[in-house]
Every structure is written in C-alpha cells, then in structure tokens.
Amino acid sequence: MQRSRATVAVIGAGPGGIAATQQCKREGLDDVILVERGQPGGLLYHANLLENFPGLRGATGREAVVELGEILMDYGITIMKADVTNISMAKKGFRTVSAHGPEVISKYLVLATGTGPRKLGIPGEICEPEWRDYTGERVAVVGGGDAAYDYALRLNELGAKVIIFRRNEPRALNALVDEVRLEGIEEICHEITDWQRSHDLYTLRYGENTLSCDMVVTAVGREPALPAMDFVYHGCEFPTGATDVENLYAVGSLVLRGYRHATLAWGMGLAAAMDICGKEMGVRKE
Description:
Elements: E1 3-11, H1 15-26, E2 32-36, H2 61-74, E3 79-81, E4 84-90, E5 93-98, E6 103-111, E7 115-117, E8 138-142, H3 146-157, E9 161-166, H4 174-182, E10 186-189, E11 194-198, E12 201-206, E13 209-213, E14 215-218, E15 222-224, E16 228-229, E17 248-250, H5 253-256, H6 262-281
Helix pairs in contact: 1-6, 3-4
C-alpha cells in the first residue's frame, strides 16, 4: 500500500476543511494534505442562495463552490480524492486509510467530514437534489426546516411543481417561509403515512388523501458523518474544535449541530489551523 506522510491531514473539503488547509498554508505550514471523496464545498453546493456569507452574498451554492475551488488553486492546494474508510492511532499521530488511495500518516488530524442525511426509507428518495431542469415534474419535498424550504425554492426556480409536506408549523427561517409563500409553493401540514412506487411515479398517502409525484426529496435532519475509528473522542472546544484526544480536531457541521452554518464552519477550520500552527511553530495565539 502506498503511504503519504504529512504534519496535518484534513478530512473533508467543505468550508471548515478548506479554511483549515488554507490557514495552514498561509502560516507557512505547507506539509498538509486535504482529503475529499467528492467535490469541494460539501453540502454548500446544494444551497439555493447564500445571503449571509461575507464575500459570497447573493451567490448560489454552485457559484460558492467555484469560489472555494479558486481559493484552493490560489494556495496550490491539491485535493487527494479518496473515500476514507478507517482512522486509527499511529505511533506518533494518526493513520487514515481510504478505499482507493494512499494511507496517510499525520501528526495532526482535522475531522471536517460534515453530516449525512437522515432518510425516511422511501425507495428512491433524494436527499440532495441535483442542479438540472425539472420542467414538467412534480416534486414532493418532505420537511419543515431551512433545507426543505431552500430546496423547494431551488426546485421551483428550476421548473418543478413543488409541494412541501411538513408535520408541524415550519421551523425554517421566516425569510425562507415568506419567499416560498410569495412564490405560491403549496404547503401541506400533514405527515406522509404511506407511499407506493410504480415505475417512476410515487403515490403518497396523507390521512385520507393521496398525491402523485415524480420525485420525493427528503430533508428531515442530518447526522454526523464519520468513517470507522478505532478510538473515541468526547466533545470539542469552541472555536478551535480541539478534542480530548491529543492533536485531534473536529470542526464544522460535524459538531455544530443546531448551529450548523457555513460561516461558523469556516471560522472553526480557521481557528483549528491557528491552534495547530501555534503548537507546531511555537507561536501561541493570544
């Protein structure tokens, strides 16, 4: 097996992981490896519109991801494309193993792996809808939070006839709810009690009623996404993400729970890198 060594390994190229890698480079700690299985930007890619990310206000998620990619290029950061399957303790640090790719040995490890969607168990349900033309399609979006209403707005803009299903009053930001209603997107306050799929058509039952649609998008919460680990860490400090395992940091949506936001993830990645560079280069940030 091929092996790469680095002072710092960052797992995940969302806002937190990119910020951590960039800051290490800015402070002169060039020996850093950024590992990502998908595209840079993480879940940010699926955002309909960014309204409170400095410098990216008014950008779509796709546009924001392009900007983050340019930041990586500006600093000469190359992403190691790999799906991390296991992390273990090494003699003097951490061993990161991927399904296809070199094993990485690092002194410091920054976990910026983000979250994965909870699912309802509906066959073929989509948790992160693509950017494409949905003209002529009827799409049911299940959920009452920010993600559900944001997806509904994007799908509507891309041509879909959207219906939102929520069990209770919306939990989304008032601005998102107001925009959904201004666009005339239908909201149904009822839990889906049953579903059937025949070929490419869904039949959803709610109470005594049914609705047919072409696609079901579920946005019913997210959970921390971590590869298998042969050790356990408990909690982390804010804002650096330092854990009770020496030289291990956990940042961004992975740990932010109800405070998940791209700007907070970016700040945590930045703080983690500053802490690491302070330790490694003998300069404490005060």
